[in-house]
Amino acid sequence: MTQPAHLHPDRLLPAAEPARSIARELYPEVAELPLICPHGHTDPAWFANNERFASPTALFLTPDHYVLRMLRSRGLSYDDLGIPRKDGKPIADGRAAWRLFAANYHLFVGTPSKSWIDHSLHWAFGITDELSSDTADAIYDTIDTALATPDLLPRALLDRARVEVIATTEYALDPLTHHHKMEAEGLIGRVRTTYRPDDVTNPERAGFLDRLHQFGDLTGENITIWSGLINAHRNRREVFRRFGAVATDHGLPTALTADLAPLEKQALLERILTGQYDPEDADLFRAQMMTEMALLAVEDGMVMQLHAGARRNTDAHLLEERGPDLGGDVPSRVNYVDGLQPLLNRCGNEPNLRLIAFTLDESNYARELAPMAGFWPSLMIGPPWWFHDSPQGIRRYLDQVVESAGFYNLAGFNDDTRALLSIPARHDVWRREVCGFLAQWVAEHRLSKASARDIARHLSYQAAKDAYRIA
Amino acid sequence: MTQPAHLHPDRLLPAAEPARSIARELYPEVAELPLICPHGHTDPAWFANNERFASPTALFLTPDHYVLRMLRSRGLSYDDLGIPRKDGKPIADGRAAWRLFAANYHLFVGTPSKSWIDHSLHWAFGITDELSSDTADAIYDTIDTALATPDLLPRALLDRARVEVIATTEYALDPLTHHHKMEAEGLIGRVRTTYRPDDVTNPERAGFLDRLHQFGDLTGENITIWSGLINAHRNRREVFRRFGAVATDHGLPTALTADLAPLEKQALLERILTGQYDPEDADLFRAQMMTEMALLAVEDGMVMQLHAGARRNTDAHLLEERGPDLGGDVPSRVNYVDGLQPLLNRCGNEPNLRLIAFTLDESNYARELAPMAGFWPSLMIGPPWWFHDSPQGIRRYLDQVVESAGFYNLAGFNDDTRALLSIPARHDVWRREVCGFLAQWVAEHRLSKASARDIARHLSYQAAKDAYRIA
Amino acid sequence: MTQPAHLHPDRLLPAAEPARSIARELYPEVAELPLICPHGHTDPAWFANNERFASPTALFLTPDHYVLRMLRSRGLSYDDLGIPRKDGKPIADGRAAWRLFAANYHLFVGTPSKSWIDHSLHWAFGITDELSSDTADAIYDTIDTALATPDLLPRALLDRARVEVIATTEYALDPLTHHHKMEAEGLIGRVRTTYRPDDVTNPERAGFLDRLHQFGDLTGENITIWSGLINAHRNRREVFRRFGAVATDHGLPTALTADLAPLEKQALLERILTGQYDPEDADLFRAQMMTEMALLAVEDGMVMQLHAGARRNTDAHLLEERGPDLGGDVPSRVNYVDGLQPLLNRCGNEPNLRLIAFTLDESNYARELAPMAGFWPSLMIGPPWWFHDSPQGIRRYLDQVVESAGFYNLAGFNDDTRALLSIPARHDVWRREVCGFLAQWVAEHRLSKASARDIARHLSYQAAKDAYRIA
């Protein structure tokens, strides 16, 4: 059977010769490499319980904020798309929502979402038709039937997708129940947790103080004194490492860090604990905690990830009506140079520190991150994040980072997704784009084909293992 | 006769195969579509009076700030280019100015100005020679002779250019004299006004308070109370709609909006009315007025355009000597995320609101506007504006907006020009670039040719009608 | 002998037809033009004394902060790379450092450093092997032997590299000893100094006040009154002109300028002189000095260069351990619109003023510098600077500046380097990229081949002479 156009084997590769032929040589050598997924948001319950996915809608539509936001932007209602409301009022059922999605699938032309979904429908279900009103029901039924088979169970999907390692992300207070279960079944190592302490480092999240006290209880530390608070993290990081964690992750509105004197830190903590603080204090607390995390990373060797610049829940009404993670987060400008200065001057030359920086502000690439990563031994650049994890996003990234950072200060790829089925698609896009980029440079005689081959393999597989210190 | 190089039929299309052949298929299908011009600055007197244009210089040189600025930047004097002085001192006459322009036409190589002028000379006058010292007089005479013929009268030009709809832009206090005349002649609908109330929303424009009182007189509202001020706008918007207005337009140094409580609004208005305000108050007044305009748009369905980020009249000496709009305006950084937050949280989910955002800060495209337009139902992205309405500007725009906003959150094209003859040229550049972009994606198997064809037609014609709610 | 891949004659030229053939026509016409080097940091002692270079390591590794930073970023130690320490502790010797460099040369794949070094090894030493552990010793020996020959003496290198003019850069207090010697030998004109008064305009540099008093002594002016301080500069600029200076250069963290009233200036100076000033005063002093320099430039016609946006010595530990210029400088965001406003409004229309602006913030290109240079007669845009003096950097630059500034507001190329041997390589990359860019536009019928030919020659040679007023 001939492949339909949207699944063309050459897709994304350079269209013009001589780069096309070179890319066609490079890509097959990396296409089938195992997947290293050191940062993401898949649900650990899937792998712990290995139960069937509920429905096509629950798999492809309801949890995918990329998809929901686009449908919403063209006037579709979240009620009709089956997104639960806090007030419990009725919403569309799964099949009705699916049909609406299918009828509007043309809105995704040109978006990464379409390429991920097209790819997922094909690799997981053998579907080559494009989603549309005409195909909605048939595709729904095909998926629904397949989901009942052993081949589509979560662990089987990890195998089929050649996932060698996958990291989930849990908050500091998470009981890691699913990871306990996976430990008992020998799954830890292939599945790993990641320590994301935003729940106890960001004073502006609702319920922060309660959680901070829970954090003390959980770890047996006195979190009302600064050293006790740090001990609680030290303790908790160790627990996470038992469940495979090689990294911590930090989501912040800015890249601000701080390096306060001990007395200042204690005074700041007291203002936070008594609620007598202003927004500048909240910034400062987050900023100081980044440096503390870096110092703990120097001790324990966990790799530190900084995701800076997401403005969360910009639609207050939507947040109140249905909760977070429904598409209302948007990027904002980031200043990495000033932001990281205190942290890097405190411990940026420590051989044990590894800080991987991500940005949603592409103006950081050439102006800040590449020059900085090309200087500080501790700093690497994470792959294009979120909105920029896309063909054009990857092209802009490689265009802007390689010349100043080289290829070896890049942390390879990670899919950063909660959509399990999109994982192979996302890695595949990255690999195609990397091969296309390198092929172009080979065609311009800037790189030998042998170098291109090495770098393509490195960026497709080994770079992520190295960057995240995965043995 | 063979086309000279600068009018080559393939100009701007991708040079390399296979994209070139695909673009050559796409472009002819959109090249001759009618022009929708929903935002621009042509003089309504032209269409109302339908009189001949005065001279080649008055048509191509004196009113074109793109052209003037470039000549000035290379040391030519505005006196020698025939730009009137406020002190009435002598300036060059039309033909002398034209010769100087022609002698320096090489300065425009690589600029959109040159492509617009080359195109204009050809489509309107059949001139295929390039402007130069050698051709200056002959071209001047050809144009001057042609301008005396019926074919070159303003209304005939609309026909020849296939302009289906064209909007002019008038301030809130404008008497709309020319539109009255056009109404009588049945021209409204094809020609439309646009409500641009900057004259009564920006306290820092000279003469603001006088105008605000005139605004009250004109509308019979008490503009010293906030609700009266808003009523005055409500009233005036209705009048503008009678003359075809489907949109409002707002030119602001920043994208700041506000959502004050009623008492705060009244207090602010009082500070403004008494002149007891500081620059922050002026910002706040403009910001609050944006949200008020959005609320009125929710009521009356007029489409709201925000042109943010132009720093006006940066050369104070030039402003004093000859006035505004002579090239001294420059772009500046814009923050759309924080700026629009109050407005969008007030009414960004209202189905009746349509806000089209334009920027001169291209870093907004991928970081802010595309993610936001891909979420908020009310928000669309306007085409590349001003300095960026150019081949490279359009490429950067499509590169950066499509993946996160999709094609259907784009407002199509508008020419935004006061240069009537450049209108077909500008639309043609947009259409060529859109076809080239889509052809490239088809060549990379990211898009079917059928999709590309649909999107090319949409972005060339229907998108603008839809975005501006033109029936 | 066939050229090895990394020295391919078509390198960097467009890979796809028809642009490739056009570029191959354009490039040979500019490849051999003499080099104009109006801004750089070569050591005047080289040309004055014409002595052999000490060693391969001293030539290629130790002084090259681009190379050092990359090696450091991947964990190599500056001790092992032979970088002197202030505490005098032992460091690696030249050959050991060279071997380490060679063993890690793969880190430079894709960086401009590699292309410069590959090119230098070839043109100066006839070496076509790539550097690696295997070739380290042989290449070291080849270079070391060659350095002892007359062909590799500094002045001979200027000849071989076809350097027509080269400017060094000296601080205001520099005794210009080497230039005195060169004057006696008739070298001034080919070698020129540049007036870089940062040592006496930046209050935050260590030792500033002492130097300011020295400046008064050296010039016989009373630097405690503002007019005396300006006179000291006037005087010193004249001395520099005697040694060929056609330009001044100003390195600043921001693009801030100011235009204070006389009394404010004197009060500011007094705060600076008594040390009773805060960081805002330091900013203001630097800002005001920029405008003063512009006013002096109006008097004496020296071309003013502004290099804005470098954050210096971001690694305080490294600075303390080994000093500056070892890779710890990084770019930061710049605001040229607001920054230059006071200066340009004071004298931006003066025919005698020429201000060449450089940026490390590429978002300035299309948003600020191109629109501003396309308006102000005094303003030109310098070539891509530092991290952006690279193939992709040049592409982004041309993409973003040409349409609004035209080709004739660009200052051509300068190499800005302290690495003598890299000079031909850097100019060659620029020329190749310019030809590739123009070829692409010719292929898209945006430019005639004749225009492309003229512009390629202009940007390769004459533009720099014109911009810097080199007769």
Automatic annotation (TrEMBL), chains A, B, C:
Its EC number is 5.3.1.12. The keyword Mitochondrion does not apply. It catalyses: D-glucuronate = D-fructuronate. PANTHER family: URONATE ISOMERASE. Keywords: Isomerase. One of its GO terms (biological process) is D-galacturonate catabolic process. This is Uronate isomerase. Belongs to the metallo-dependent hydrolases superfamily. Uronate isomerase family. It comes from Devosia epidermidihirudinis. Pathway: Carbohydrate metabolism; pentose and glucuronate interconversion.
